[in-house]
Write a structure and sequence with these properties.
It is built from ten helices and 22 strands. By secondary structure, it is of the alpha+beta class. A hairpin with a 4-residue loop joins strand 7 and strand 8. It is globular and about 65 Å long. The termini are far apart.
């Protein structure tokens, strides 16, 4: 009897399980290996019920570094040239230069009374940013913030105002070094980053945009090695943190609180931030500031070659597989390069084993070598590579 009863029971059980499976298919959508696959909508609801991860905060970094960032105010004296507007309508008579009539007409054109010795002068104010790099009061800023300035003051994050002296400037990299006058030897300061920032790294810009001191903005490193036509040693970091007028000379920090760059320029058709700013790399800042601190000026290496870019056509003509390096247009007579055997027509493709992509790379690398030290140049000449050793000289002033 038990055997006979067991058969109908199994049949009914199987039918019930089959109905349950159909229900599972309707509710859940599928069945795999006897297991019901979760409904995606249910999974979404469960994920929404989990705590949302908070966005990263930069507050701790800013708490550490902000006291070291200062606002820079410079008194600038300019000559008021009231004749500029009038000169478009005022034509100078043709008198002999330096004659009494020539001087008289020039005085009237420039808005001066006869006998006046100079044009009237006006005073303005330049605003920028900076930061302490040592406890004894040395401050880094941009050259264009302090050039043509007479009196320099810095305002600390706590509102304290101190006079500062310009120790030295370097127009070629747009850097300047200041020294606070008085105030002790316990200023808050920050360090320069030993490693260069990578594209995609978070960065924080702190400064004095439009006179609004203590302003913090955030972004990422968006490009490296930008040449924006500012000078012979352009090698800027491009960032997308909002930077505006007044941020000049201020620091860009990494998340470790180290300075990776000094903000110096923006790309802006309107004059305001459009998300493209340029900072001088910390490696350049370190070299220039050390020279300014030691001697008040920057001494750069010099090998004495005039260069031109290697175009695709030139590369094909001389047998290079790709356009690279710096073509020597002339090796100056008695220069370090000429003494080492560098000739006109050589292509310098590496310095100390590091490849040279373009002519400006060579300028930057040589400039960073202290005079008196040696470096090796890899030359491409007549289809072959050769290496020469050059004793670096001192770059002449004005070059």
């Amino acid at each position: 009897m038990l055997n006979k009863l067991s058969q109908p029971v199994r049949s009914r059980t199987a039918k019930w399980l089959g109905a349950a499976a159909v229900a599972a298919l309707i509710a859940g959508g599928a069945v795999e290996s006897g297991l019901v696959v979760p409904n995606p909508a249910h999974a979404e609801l469960r994920s929404m019920s989990q705590p949302v991860q908070a966005a990263p905060s930069f507050a701790e970094v800013i708490d550490r570094v902000k006291p070291a960032v200062v606002s820079v105010k410079v008194k600038v004296q300019t000559v008021a040239d009231r004749g500029d507007e009038d000169s478009q309508q005022f034509s100078m008579p043709d008198f002999p230069p330096g004659s009494p009539m020539d001087r008289l007409f020039r005085q009237f054109r420039d808005g001066q009374q006869p006998g006046a010795r100079q044009k009237p002068r006006q005073f303005g104010q330049a605003l920028g940013s900076g930061f302490f790099i040592s406890a004894d009061g040395y401050v880094v800023t941009n050259n264009h913030v302090v050039e043509n300035g007479s009196d320099v003051q810095i305002t600390m994050d706590d509102g304290k105002v101190l006079d500062a002296k310009v120790i030295g400037t370097d127009p070629k990299t747009d850097l300047a070094l200041l020294k606070v006058q008085g105030g002790g030897n316990d200023f808050p300061y920050v360090r320069l980053a030993p490693q260069k920032a990578r594209i995609g790294d978070w960065v924080l810009a702190v400064g004095n945009p439009f006179g609004l001191g203590g302003t913090v903005t955030a972004g990422i490193v968006s490009a490296q090695h930008r040449d924006i036509g500012q000078g012979p040693y352009d090698d800027f970091i491009q960032i997308d943190a909002p930077v505006n007028k007044g941020n000049s000379g201020g620091p860009t920090f990494n998340l470790a609180g180290e300075v990776v760059g000094v903000n110096t320029a923006i790309f802006s058709p309107s004059g305001g931030s459009v998300g493209i700013a340029f900072a001088i790399p910390a490696s350049t800042v370190d070299q220039v500031v050390t020279s300014l601190k030691d001697g008040g000026s920057v001494t750069r290496g010099f090998i004495g070659v005039q260069m031109q870019p290697v175009t695709k056509e030139i590369a094909e003509a001389i047998g290079l597989k790709e356009p690279k390096g710096a073509l020597v247009a002339e090796a100056l007579k008695d220069s370090p390069a000429a003494k080492a055997g560098v000739r006109t027509g050589d292509t310098i493709i590496a310095v100390n084993g590091e490849p040279i992509g373009e002519a400006k790379d060579l300028s930057r690398k040589v400039a960073q070598v202290a005079p008196g030290k040696t470096l090796s140049l890899t030359l491409y000449r007549e289809g072959k590579e050769r290496t020469v050793t050059v004793e670096v000289g001192t770059q002449p002033k004005g070059t």
